[in-house]
Amino acid sequence: MTGNLEKAIDWKVDATDGRARAGTLRTRRSVIETPVFMPVGTQGSVKGVRFEWLEDEIDARIILGNTYHLFLRPGPDAIRLLGGMHKFTSWQRSLLTDSGGFQVFSLTDLRKLTEEGVEFRSHLDGSKQFISPEVSMEIQAALGSEIVMAFDECPPGDAGHEKTRESMELTLRWAERSKTRFFELQEAGMDTGRKVAEGLAGRQALFGIVQGAGHHDLRSESLERTVAIGFDGYAIGGLSVGEEKPVMYGVLDRIAHRMPENAPRYLMGVGTPEDLLEAVGHGVDMFDCVMPTRNGRTGGVFTSRGKINIRNAKFAVDEAPLDDRCGCSVCRRYSRAYLRHLYQAGEMAAATLISHHNLAFYLDLMRGAREAIREGRYYEFKQEQLAGFAENASRDV
Question: In 24-53, which positions are buried (b, 16+ CB within 10 angstroms) versus exposed (e)?
């Protein structure tokens, strides 16, 4: 698909165990071992967590930025003038930007969908805005991300078959337009990340998105036709948008292992630790979700023994760390009692410290999955983790 342009990414599957696979993804900025969880940096920042911590302790090799939010503020023109997202934010490892499609989908009452694109009202000031496949590619070129997502339309999880087919067909037409404009921008040298950073080889990569809600026939058709268009990687979109868990897991069972073996597979916006383990078992390589930081801001803690709520009164005099099996700096230093005190006192440090732990937990979970796949014991690893998560399931936590 690249014509005469240089290669965007190097992808290699290093080991498999059943459908699960461990691989290495090389971008122009970092080497990423998969399966990998990508912290979400919606507006150019992972909420409450400094980049130094992400780099030096948590060792995140790639984070996600949100095209919709960055389009509205500070805007692609400002980011281009500032040298792209890497120079603007100081994050020098890989960046994946979503297309903006999901955020526009969530503005149901404020948007008008046409063949050309989506007209919507900004949630910031009510101003009229417009995003199309071409505009999305232009924004993401200005951002200079390593991985760009094709512009798609995301139907509700419970959408009927006819409505979902209409949405899928539109997404496929938009995928063609996204690819055409993407390569026009690459050939014109509009990729800010490549233009500004000296010594960086390689263009941006473009991933296509498979849609189809919970309809297996449409998912299969969307996959076949998206692969026929040709992309550097492939994503499963439109899950975890209100459908029941069995629906999501059914789609993964039907689709994930049939995605191209020679390209990364990305499950967008998912999810809980249990969801990640299930998806890895079906052959998914990449994940993102706001859950670690969103829960961290409300006192929700992910642990090897299941989720706990630090607001619970029983932690008021609990001297144990958040998770005695976790080696992050928060667990090495602070007690549950202290973190509960910070939360109850309204100290912003509570959200920062719990978010830090949650991200470390997620990345450690994926690190363990990689090791288990390489050792041929992923099923046992998954069962051990799920048994641990269930310890707190029936308790008042």
Answer: ebebbbeebbbbbbbbbbbbbebbbbebeb
